[in-house]
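haha ok so turns out i had the wrong file open the whole time. this is the CORRECT one, sorry everyone. sequence first:
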Amino acid sequence: MSTIDKLTKASHLIDMTDIVREGNPILRTKASEVTFPLSDQEIILGEKMLQFLKHSQDPVMAEKFGLRGGVGLAAPQLGISSRIIAALVPNLEDEEGKPPTEAYSLQVVMYNPKIVSHSIQQTVLADGEGCLSVDRVVEGYVPRYSRVTIEYCDKDGEKHKIKLKGYNAIVVQHEIDHLNGVLFYDRIDTAEPFKIEEGVMVLE
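then structure:
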C-alpha cells in the first residue's frame, strides 16, 4: 500500500507515527507541483492534514492520540513529495478571557502555494520556531518576512491571492520552506543564534 493510500483511507486518522522526522531525505527534497484537476486522494489528503491540526490543538484528542500541537503541516512531512500545505492558526481569547468571534485567523489548505511578494522588513518569533518533524529544541531566531502575498490554488483549482502578516505569515513561510527542502533551523545564524539585525521585529 502506498503512503497516500494509507493516509487517505476513510478509517485512518493522521497521527505522529505518520510524520517523517529530520534525517529523512524527503524533507530535503524539492516537492513536485500538483496538477489539476486533483485526484480524490489529493483532496482527501488536504482535508486530513487540516483534521490532524484540529485534533492536535484539541486537548482531549491530542492526549488520546499522543499528538504534538501544530499550526501547520506540509505534505513532505507525511512522506509525500507534493506541494500541499495546511495551516490552522487559532484566534486567542481577548484580555477578559472571552472567546474570539472567529475560531481561526487562518484555516486553509493550499495547493502549489508560492510567495509572490514580501515586505523588506523581517520578523522573528521571540520563542523561536519548532517543527513536528524535529523532535528536539533548536534555539535561535528564525528570520521571516513580516508580510507576504501568497498565491495558491484550492482543491477545485481556483486561484487565490492572500496577504498575510505577523504570525500567519510566519506559519505559511515555514510550511512553504518544507516544500523546498528547507527546515526552520537552516535560517538560524549558527554563530549568533539570537542576533537581531536592525529593524527586525520580535513577535511575542
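The longest helix spans residues 40-57.
again sry for the mixup
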